[in-house]
Structure formats: structure tokens, C-alpha cells
Amino acid sequence: MSDLKVLIIPSWYPTPKQPLTGSFFHEQAQFLQGKEGLDFQVLYGEKKSYTLILWIWVFVKSRLKPTWPISTSKVRQGPTAYGFDIPANRRVPDQLQINLEKKIFLKAYRSLVLSGWVPDLIHAQSGMDAGIYAHHISQETNIPFLIMEHQVFVFHYYSKLRGTLIMDAFQSAQKTAAVSWDERRQVMMNQPQCNPKVIWNLVDEAQYMIDLGKRRKAFTVITLLNSLFIKGAEDFIEAMAIVLQYDPEIRFIMIGKGGDKKSSNVQENLFVRKSKELGIFEKGEFLPVVPRDQISNVLNQAHVFVSPSIQEPHGIAVREAMMCGLPIISTANGGVEDSVTPETGLVVPVKQPETMAAAIIAMKKNYSRYKPERIRELAINQCGKEAFLGSMVDFYHFENQ
């Protein structure tokens, strides 16, 4: 039996200038490459701002050229990946912008297959906007396509046309998937003509181990998030201020953009500013960036992980913490709830710092109830390598192949 060739079209992907963007798409493809007869290549178009004159020139050129330049130097390799630029200009009507995007993507695809590698299947990582491109290429080539949704499924910042094209893609895809039960519900609320399979994102359990010897003496609460409003950083800090009034010995760690003590940017120093306003700065540790190979070490210094988001499509950081044996306190944010049971943690309402604080205090009192090995086991059963491989092999195979 020959390999099944799968072309991944991601909505975002690591580039030399943005090495962390879409890194989990790269890690998933790298993990699956060569397993169970799967052979991957990646085609990624990165939108870049162009002047109107240059945009018009590229638009004209796109109608004349049969193919489009692609390069392996524009994106991270392993598996083989090709990148190219998609010109964008805010003054251009979205109908014309979409037309250009579809044309360039199809011609970039034609350049890719000139190498002799022709996919049996196209996998769009997120319908926004990879689903549009995968659908268009499928219509022109009769190659079946699939969509897996990873991000918050809202359309208020999309044009009506772009939103319609995304929904058309979901309806036409041979299979669809979502990274949580809540994400699945969101997709079906917008496009009831599809029935997504739930496939939790890959978290490599070999990179996250339980190390109780690293736990700090003081009960420590940790979170990993950025400064976007939807991530709930201010709610977390307000909750910690309440917790510290009750128990001044508790400490907290915040990882992510917002924890830069040296920056004057309001987004990059949000965690620092807010904690100073509430008088708890000295009780916290703020780490703007932690290298991937050090995340397990930092997580193991804490006793509980908190996810304060308003909405979370999946929650990779939560599963990483669970694989280190940490119990979870999460808002009812969607994706994380798939992993929170009475054995693994507590769920609290969104945007209620007082309730979050009460949950932290209660967890500290009843900490012996939570068994690190059991918490790790549940996360591995959902998101570990064996579970992810089995789900993806099933996703890629269907009867009419």
C-alpha cells in the first residue's frame, strides 16, 4: 500500500520572523510524518501589507502567470514546507482581496506539484482562512479536503463574503474536526450541515514529567497566558489579590506576554502594572518568555494551574500542566472543560475573580485529594501521542479513498 500524501494548508505557521506562530501545527505534522503510511507537505501563504500600487501590480501579474513562486526558506522545515507572500491592502474591497488570495494559492499549489509530489488529500488547519483556500483548490483539482478548527469561531471581524466562504468550505469538506466539544458546538451553530469529530491537540507527554521535588515550599499558583482581554489576565490578578488577603503566604507565577518588567508597552507590562496597582507585585514572579524545553521545569515549581480565559478553543498549556501532575482551576471557557473532572480540578464562572479566589483557597485546603499521576493519565489519554495518532489516522481515512 502506497503512502497517503497529505497537503497541509495552515492558517498560520512558523516563519523566520515569527518562529512561534502556529508552532503546534508544525509539531503535529512533524510528529505524524512517516507514521502509518502518512506523507506530508505544507503550503503556507503569509499575508503581508503592500502599497496599493504594488497590490494592483501583483493582482495583474496573478492573472498572467500559470504558477506562483514558492520557497522553503520562508517557513520552518520538517516536513517539507513551502511559503509565499499574499499581498494585502486595507483599501482593497474584500471581494477583490479574496479573489487574489484564491488565485495565488491555486497557482502556488501548481508550483508545488511540479516537483512530482501530488497530494491525495488536503488538510486545512482552521477554516479561517485555510478552509477557503483548500476548498478552492479542491474544486479545481477534485482532491478531497478536510478542515480541523482551532480558533474562536466568531465572525464579527470578517466580511459577510469571507464568512460565507468559510461556512461553504465546512459544508463541502469530506470531513471536519474541532479541538474540543465546545469548539464543535460553535462550528455547528454556524454550519449545521457538518458534524465535526473532536480531536484534541497533540501534547507530547515525553516533554512534561511529574517532578514533585521541584514544588516550592510556599503554595504556588501558576498561569500561562497573554495580555489579550479574552485571556482573563486581569481577572486572575484580581483573584490573587483576594487570595493573598486570606493567606499572605501564597505565591503566584505568570508566564507570557504581559510580564515584561522592563517594557513601557501597556500590553507587554500588563501583568506587572496590574499587580502593582493591587499591591501584590512582590508576591508574584513574571516571566515574559520561557523556552519550550524549560516549561516543564517551571510548571513543576507550582501546585495548581489556573486558566482564567473567557474562551479557550483547546488549552494546550492546561494539558501541559496536567502532564506535570498539577490540578486545574479553570473558568467555564469551553475547551479546557473537557479535561476538568472532580479528580483533576474545579470549574468556575467566567469573569468572577471572587469565585476563582475561593476555588484557589478551597484547593489549597483539599490539596491531598488531587493525585498527580491520575491527573497526568487523563491528559495523556486525551492529548498524548498515541491518542493523537489514532485520531488523525482515522480522520485521514474514509471509505471512498
UniProtKB/TrEMBL annotation:
GO terms for molecular function: glycosyltransferase activity. Keywords: Transferase. Gene3D superfamilies: Glycogen Phosphorylase B (3.40.50.2000). Residues 220-377 form the Glycosyl transferase family domain. This is Glycosyltransferase involved in cell wall bisynthesis.
